[in-house]
Structure formats: structure tokens, C-alpha cells
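Need residues for this backbone.
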């Protein structure tokens, strides 16, 4: 049996929970203190890596599954760069227009697509990534210096980054408060955080829970990316987490699956979804809270 651990809520530190689903490798729970949905009993970080993702035992060539319609992309690129450029646009919308662009660090950089989009927009770029092959792609294919390891491992200089991003990564980070503390050290005083995570308040998750309760589909939790996803954020829980480490949300939005050529129906559905902010993924821009 892999090594397990039981942990308190990273937001309010309460140990009081309501169990939502139990599995031999994790227990999904809702915090009775603040309502955050997370794994309260989970694999240790070492056990998780050995079971689900050993970055040192990957194939020599990087192959990723492309979304339908994107099969013409190179093996390292899962989506067109336009899908990552929207992240850069979210930062561009809030930063001073007359300020020179600084360093963008992407944590969990994968094969560098977001960093390419940031570099194309004029930023200096770097980051950190656990996967050995992904780091090699960043360096050998794109010429981007990405550290092989975590944000803390990289030991970036104090206040060096204008932007620090985690694109579909924060839900995997074991010590999430410590991650934000390190980001606070590395971030420039007037810098920004960009965080994208699954949106537990989105229509997909709400409908899934309803269908399970009506017993018209398989159990909701079995359809999620578990045990890899340690947390399931809503905008409220992410706001509380950021506030606990001295950050405030500037803007937020939700989104769904990227489509290169969406149909009329898909565009209409996207317009409604984004207007109601019930997309399945959450994008947040944050900065240090005013004192």
C-alpha cells in the first residue's frame, strides 16, 4: 500500500470535514470550516509521483494528445498558441501599458507553450517544470531556460518576476500555501499572479453531481482526474486561499475547451457560459493586497 497522509485544510487549517467520497488512495472531503473541497487523506508527494507521474521515467520523445482538429501541430504542442495567448491577454488587460515588460515565470511549464506566447508578447521568460523531457523541449526546441524541479527548487532571486503563472497546475501542488509564500518572495512588488484551475463551480461539475445523485451516471468522483487533483477550487475558495497569503483577485473569468473553428452553436454556448461564469475552467489574475 502506498504511503498516505491526513492533512488539515490549507485555507482555514480546520481538521473538521464532511466526507464526500472514499477511495483506497484518497478521501474527498468538504471542509466544515470554509467549505473547501479537497483530499483530506491523500498519497504523500513521493507516493503520488511514483504512482501517477514519475518525471524521470518518460519516453525519450515527447508525444502529447492533441485536441480534435489540431493533429497538424508538432508533437510537443497540444493546442495552437492562440489558446495560450488568452492567458497573456488577461495580464495585458490589467498591467500598466507604458511599463516595460519584465520576466514571466511559468510554474509547471510543460513543453513551453504558455512561455512561447508570453515571449511573443515581449516578456522575458523562464520557469520550472518537474518533467525531464518537457524541460529538454523548452531548452532545446525553444531556447527557454526552465528549471528542472519546483518553484522552491529553482530559488529564483527576490522580486525578479513581473508575472508568475500556474496553468492547470495549482490543483496538483501539495503544499499550496508554501507555494504562494515562495511566489510572494519571487514576485516584484507590483507583479501579478496568473492561476488557472478546474472550476468546481462550473456546469460540468454541477451537472455531474446532479446526475450521480439521480443515479443516471457512474459515480461523479470516478470521472475526475483523481488522485492527481488534490483540490477542487471555486472562485470563493481560491479567493480565500490567495487572501490568506496576502493577495487579492484583480479579474477572473471562466472558460471551456479550446476549439480552433467553433460552430455557431458552440460559439453561442460559449457566450452564455462565459457570461454566467460557469465554464469548467477558472482563470484568475491576482496581485498583492493593498495594506
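Answer:
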Amino acid at each position: 500500500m502506498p504511503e498516505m497522509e491526513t492533512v488539515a485544510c490549507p485555507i482555514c487549517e480546520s481538521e473538521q470535514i464532511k466526507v464526500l467520497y472514499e477511495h483506497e488512495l484518497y478521501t474527498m472531503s468538504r471542509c466544515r470550516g470554509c467549505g473547501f473541497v479537497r483530499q483530506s487523506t491523500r498519497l504523500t508527494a513521493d507516493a503520488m509521483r511514483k504512482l501517477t507521474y514519475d518525471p524521470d521515467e518518460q519516453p525519450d520523445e515527447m508525444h502529447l494528445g492533441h485536441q480534435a482538429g489540431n493533429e497538424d501541430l508538432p508533437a510537443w504542442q497540444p493546442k495552437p498558441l492562440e489558446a495560450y495567448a488568452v492567458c497573456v491577454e488577461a495580464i495585458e488587460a490589467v498591467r500598466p501599458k507604458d511599463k516595460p515588460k519584465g520576466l514571466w515565470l511559468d510554474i509547471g511549464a510543460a513543453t513551453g507553450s504558455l512561455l512561447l506566447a508570453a515571449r511573443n508578447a515581449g516578456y522575458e521568460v523562464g520557469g520550472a517544470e518537474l518533467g525531464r523531457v518537457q524541460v529538454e523541449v523548452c531548452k532545446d526546441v525553444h531556447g527557454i531556460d526552465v528549471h528542472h524541479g519546483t518553484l522552491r527548487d529553482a530559488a529564483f532571486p527576490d522580486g525578479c518576476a513581473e508575472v508568475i503563472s500556474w496553468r492547470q497546475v495549482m490543483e496538483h501542488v501539495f503544499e499550496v500555501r508554501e507555494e504562494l509564500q515562495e511566489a510572494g518572495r519571487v514576485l516584484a512588488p507590483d507583479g501579478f499572479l496568473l492561476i488557472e484551475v478546474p472550476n468546481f463551480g462550473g456546469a460540468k461539475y454541477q451537472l455531474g453531481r446532479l446526475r450521480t445523485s439521480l443515479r443516471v451516471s457512474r459515480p461523479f468522483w470516478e470521472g475526475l482526474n483523481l488522485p492527481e487533483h488534490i483540490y477542487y477550487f471555486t472562485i470563493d475558495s481560491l479567493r480565500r486561499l490567495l487572501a490568506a497569503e496576502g493577495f487579492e483577485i484583480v479579474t477572473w473569468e471562466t472558460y471551456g475547451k479550446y476549439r480552433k473553428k467553433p460552430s455557431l452553436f458552440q460559439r453561442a454556448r460559449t457566450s452564455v457560459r462565459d457570461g454566467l461564469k460557469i465554464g469548467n475552467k477558472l482563470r484568475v489574475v491576482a496581485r498583492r493586497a493593498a495594506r
